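Continued from yesterday's entry.
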Amino acid sequence: MRDTLTALALISGLGSAPPLLAQTSPAPATADADRPARTPSGATFTAPKAWTLRNAPRFAEVIAPEGDVKIAIVNVGPAADAKAAAAAAWAAYAPAAARAPKLVTARPPRNGWDERHYVDYEVSPNERRFMSAFALRSGPNWTVMIADGAEATFEKRGAAASLVSQSIRPAGYSRESFAGRAARPIDAARIAELRGFVQTAMRELGIPGAAFAITDRDRTVYATGLGVREIGKPTPVDADSQFMIASNTKGMATLLLARLVDEGRLRWDQPVTSVYPAFKLGSADTTAKVQVRHLVCACTGLPRKDMEWLFNTGPTTPASDTFVQLAATQPTSGFGEVFQYNNLMASAAGYVGAHIVHPGMEVGRAFDRAMDEKIFRPLGMTVTTFDFDRATAGNWARPHSDGLDGKPAATLDAGMALNRAVAPFRPAGGAWSTANDLVKYVRFELREGRLDDGRQWVTPANLLERRVPTVPVGEDVTYGMGLEVNRYWGVPVVHHGGSMGGYKSDIMLVPDAGIGAVILTNADNGQSLLRPFMRRLLELLYDGKPEAAGDVTASAARIRAEFATERAKLTAPADPAIVAKLARRYRSAELGRLDVERRGAETLFRFNTIVTPVGTRRNDDGSVSMVLTDPTVLGFPLVIADTGGKRQLIVRDSQHEYRFDAVE
């Protein structure tokens, strides 16, 4: 699913942000629309709507509506390097909040900046705080963006924070645009360049296997597999190898809804409760507002809530659990206010459509059948499936993640167990497909609902309704219904990504050029190939600046540096003295069981979905985390706690906290 394992990433929590500094600047200003802004030295950026904008002699600052997140863009001037520039920025902005950097990693020069460096800071999980700096040099002078505040607010308002960071440019710089350029043909030479780019990226990022395909409006122009299905084994990936496509399922699920609108069985503006009365959210007010179009818009105010299905899904979990979990989910922002990605809502969208097609059938079976009848078979997608056993019976790419040694490893136990947990929620990300099959869906999007045999299967109006912007995601990027539209480079690119354990993928189409593509990878590091692949395709179409290769190289170096830094803080196997103080059994009302087991020198945590070894990490605030070390979930922490004499392990995502209580 789109960053499904974000919930399982090492995101240090946030607590309180530094207090507002005394200002001699004019009164702060808010606005009901994004607006251009600039720093005292003339660097430009976009201030998000509803955020307060403050100006001071050395910096400009934007403050989230909640008041607990602040982003400052500080003029530093000359400095020895990025680390020194960041230190000077903190000294000018909030000296009491400054701390030593944990890691400084380079990004390629972009957007008029001669150097760009990201600065990470050590933040203990119990702080629930996000803290970073982005140091940018133009000529001799440095500009530093400081971000500091509550983790929950940063996730909730991540699109606005991205808008600020993506839009910072030196005074007078105009970004590259392909608007008005005629697209070059995707000929054999350009295909060879794209293939070579992917092969090089796979080597740099440690991706064992990948497949990609290119289509125009008439046919598949090229499809291939590269690398191997499983590291250490010779069987190659080809264009018919199965990969899990995760959240790329969402666009096809909304295509089902579009077909039902064409058939007169559904309306986009119809209240969901009128077609599925059991639909209910944690807020009655939000429930009443949700129309069919809102189910996959990421705009209802419901936050991401993946932990329960990731940790507590079993073989007998019914598809209807989607609606049980939604009924217990409260919105954390206003309706239509911000982009918040919620997989349960996308799951509900598919099941609501399936219920309309087959009202007397269990919703999971109804969805599988409806998708086969209404989408897969008409589009000629003969091998795309939700059946894990069918997908993994023959030519399939195994998932890979980096292990404790920093090298990719096949994750056939915990990794596949975690991936199977999506099955009851499969409209949000449970499909398997191949490059040859998935590119047919991309071509159908390019043809605006017309099948390869010329029949109009979905009307252009209803197909395109899924691309209408509902909320912004960043600078010149908007989200519709299971599809993003990216206009960052001056031409619209319709796309969506997919992320499950060991599988990262993307689909994209460039309507102005009449070209679409898919890329499928069998490694978590494949995430760092997706956007560069899109960029490289655009470079070849529009003679763009050669940036994609540098992006991959920088990402590979960053991954290695981040791994080395975190690995140095991790004790694996787990410290026996710490393990000895744990209970043997824990239970959580939301996340189910956690049993602590020993296997030789290793300590294992057994959840309902996965079994994984664990290590230990001593945090800067004196707390201790038990850290999952199976490659698929490597680095995910559970904080040891004692509340009122009761032993607990605390699990958090950015906006929720779950407690495993010891069974004494």
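--- second protein ---
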Amino acid sequence: MRDDPAPAEGHHGRRTSFDLTDEPWLPVLLLDGTETELSLREVFARAREIRRLAGDVPTQDFSLLRLLLAILHDALDGPRDLDDWAELWEDGEPFATVPGYLDEHHERFDLLHPVHPFFQTVELRTAKDEVFGLNRIVADVPNGHPFFTTRFPGVEHVPFAEAARWVVHAHAFDTSGIKTGVEGDPRVKSGKAYSHGVAWAGNLGGVAAEGNDLRETLLLNLIASDRDTKDDLPAWRRPACGPGSGDTAGRPDGVRDLYTWQSRRIRLHHDGALARGVVLTYGDPLAPQNMHEQEPMTGWRRSAAQEKKLGRPLIYMPREHDPSRSAWRGLETLIVPRSQNSSAHGEAPSALRPGVVDWLAQLINERVLPKETLIRVRTCGVVYGTQQSVIDEITEDAVAMPVVLLSQSDRRLAQEAVDAVADAEKAVNTLGDLASDLTRAAGGESDTGRGTARHAGFAALDGPYRNWLASLGPGADPQERRTAWQRTARREISRLAQEQLAGAGEAAWEGRTTDQAKGPAWLNTASADLWFRSRLKRCLPLAYEPASSTSSPPDPSGDDLSQPEAADGSVTGLPFPKVPR
């Protein structure tokens, strides 16, 4: 470690340096449950003690993780292959080269450096030398909705540690829209910088693997590559960016370049004690089309609209996260191999799972990781609004799963996991159908109850599915596990159905004649219940089979649904609604 003096200060205690290699600025959650801030040097040295990064917003964690990965890839100049990676995984000190690396490049990690401040452009200025509020980079202040934040009416100042985090975040997730033009940027027209799209990571449905501690998390996302990496340099090993776009022809040159992509030009303004303002404009553009070979931390979907628009035969776009869907409901896009998404006619796959998941599959298939390993796949992303000029919502979720689901030697468990999601979708649909039937039985026309019922159904199945998924270890019988899941789904959905029936009201109990596909039919609470039970039995058939005499593994939910059925198909103990006379 460098033998450095105390942090540099100017007159009257004004700081002239904030070295991110030594100053605490990275928020972390330790394994003992406490939160603290660490320097770059400390975060690598204490990685075994850290549960995870714990930034101001989930997308900040994602952008900081990518920064740490860029440092690690460059400090190791690798890993080159599976053997290199396996040695790191077994090594008690896999990050031993990082301190010397940070010593070598520490000047470029100085947030206040007079020539090349970290991730900033020192000469950035507008024609009128304007300086703007920090709201422009602080993403936890809703743009246009300052009342929904503890920082009302805005962000007047932040400590240097927090400012550094938001600078990294802005390069990854900044919004689009018209920005203030700066001197020296040839793209500026009439003092304005017109839209060049959101910052790079804002295009992604972010996906990262998470281990038991930060050491494991960093290594699980440290993807080996045998590509020539001599040109793959992070931002701090390239010349400092000036105003306007740099020379990006043929780039990015690899993940070190991509993870530190300078999507924006930024200049913090400070008083020596706190960051108080910022100049922010567009930097290096990067189009998202067909970046699936370079960007590993998102899934991809084939886009017919982009193929038609650009006149190209095959275009993949990043698969963004739907904030209304939990991560487990999109499990198929995470675990199904690319080859299985191809059509029978040999067409290109319709979807590609994230490269980091492909990497985990390689580790399990080459037996570098044991099949018993349980990992958490963490997802995050941004939902932009109003022509991508504001952040409407930040999404985050995580799903724990055994890596055996990625095994190529036996895909049965993975297929059952995907089919179990389909079971849930069908069961929730039956609950929505029941809500619609009860509304019509009462004489209503609105279908709002269907959406409410579906939301409740997915909420009820969320925890049980996550627990069931984590239980799919090596040696588990796929059919028995699927049966256990269908029984759990049947129990949860039937419980919600009984609540709906109990609250249906007098009008629904009495009923009325309604038009059905086979002609007019009397619809009331009793008939709606019978239809619901019939539909549920069709979509969860295994839940209605008698329990095997050979005991199967226990249902993770702890419920036994092996009771005998009544003649109407209901389970004994579930009350059949009484019809008023």
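The two ends are 86 Å apart (CA to CA). The first strand starts at residue 26 and ends at 30. Will compare against the first tomorrow.
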